[in-house]
Specification:
CATH topology: Recoverin, domain 1
Helix content: 55-70%
CATH architecture: Orthogonal Bundle
Structural class: mainly alpha
Distance between the termini: 43 Å
Number of helices: 6
Strand order of the largest sheet: 1-2
């Protein structure tokens, strides 16, 4: 009976880190606006995205607008902004 118990514990010990890792990677990337106060300043119309026009306020962002707009929707969302500014992902 002991070998079955040790196999079960070994299986659990291997499965738990894999499950936690998978759940962590699938979690939504949520950005607290407090983490990006400059984003809120640049997003002057407060629509949740920085347009190319708004990006002109920060020349380095404007110059790399197409690279920063990862989903190419014409606006830089908060997470794209953090990525472009070299911040780490949150969530």
């Amino acid at each position: 009976m002991r070998p079955i118990m040790s196999v079960s514990l070994a299986t659990i010990a291997l499965a738990v880190p894999l499950l936690v890792s998978a759940l962590w990677e699938e979690a939504p990337q949520i950005v607290d606006p407090a983490d990006a106060p400059a984003f809120l300043e640049i997003d002057s119309d407060h629509d949740g995205g920085i347009s190319e026009d708004e990006a002109k306020q920060l020349p380095s962002l404007h110059n790399s607008f197409n690279d920063a707009d990862l989903n190419q929707d014409g606006a830089i969302e908060p997470q794209e902004y953090l990525d472009a500014m070299g911040k780490t992902r949150v969530g």
